[in-house]
């Protein structure tokens, strides 16, 4: 780790993985990124085809939708296929820093910020087996989007809801999720760093109930992958109440990400929470505040490495 007079004193991390490959051809990573973007944009193409396509095409789409909701599930072949294309190499650099050795079970990895697409939590599993084998809990809206939901299910995305969290935690599964959700995506601003977490306390409750280790995680410069239009913020947050995305974004490549970005994903040291069968409101508030303090400390330890904002805005 380079010394920086502005930087807080940081102990040597457990592991730093530099996945940058500036000398390699970008063709394969570009294909990989395009395949990843299908998760988000294939639903729009589906609606267009439904409107303009023939009866035969509509029948094929109907069969695909039946497959999506009844049969599609996590596919290791598809996940390895995406990994082969190394989509992270489109960026100027991508590094994964792990502050402490990860544990094989009862771990909850809480990622910030969501950004527009959530590249940080999506890419980090390519470089660590424990992160790769986590269950990724994401928006149910994504799982239900036509055709997009197939790719999301193949990637192993599971709905982020109380029932799934409890079922996974009962058996000690490691979980990756983004607590800021749609709201944090809506609040993404390429000019400053923001997280939406003050009102998100459910994950603290479940972590206490099941005695989980809680890892604060942050991907620096996730907010700079796209330019954002930050008007009508309250209206766009209102749309989120109906599970509708409220982001307005673009890049010089339209929906393809900006490539001249240095990304650093940091997996912080875990908070080892006590196991409390029925945590009180006071318990939840106490450990939520501890989590916020640790998240802020994590941000401050590395912000000068990446040209991040002087202050992290916590909403």
Describe this structure in words.
- The strands form three sheets. Strands 1, 2, 3, 4, 5, 6, 8, 11 and 12 form a nine-stranded mixed β-sheet that branches. A two-stranded parallel sheet has the order 7-13. It has a two-stranded antiparallel ribbon with strand order 9-10.
- The relative contact order is 0.16.
- It is an alpha/beta fold and 315 residues long.
- It has a single domain, classed as Glycerol-3-phosphate (1)-acyltransferase, CATH 3.40.1130.
- The two termini are 30 Å apart.
- The protein is built from twelve helices and 13 strands.
Helix/strand class: alpha/beta
Ends apart, CA distance between termini: 30 Å
- Specify Rg, calculated over alpha carbons: 19 Å
- Give helix and strand order, one letter per element, not per position: EHHHEEHHEHHEHEHEHEEHEEEHE
Give the strand content: 15-25%
Question: What CATH architecture do you see?
Answer: 3-Layer(aba) Sandwich
Which range best describes the helical content: under 10%, 10-25%, 25-40%, 40-55%, 55-70% or over 70%? Answer: 25-40%
| Number of structural domains | 1
The average pLDDT score comes to 90
Uncertain residue segments? 1-9
Assembly type of the shown chains?
single chain
Number of helices: 12
Identify the overall geometry: globular
The biggest sheet, with number of strands, parallel, antiparallel or mixed sense and barrel status, is: 9 strands, mixed
Number of strands: 13
CATH class: Alpha Beta
Q: Would you give the CATH topology?
A: Glycerol-3-phosphate (1)-acyltransferase
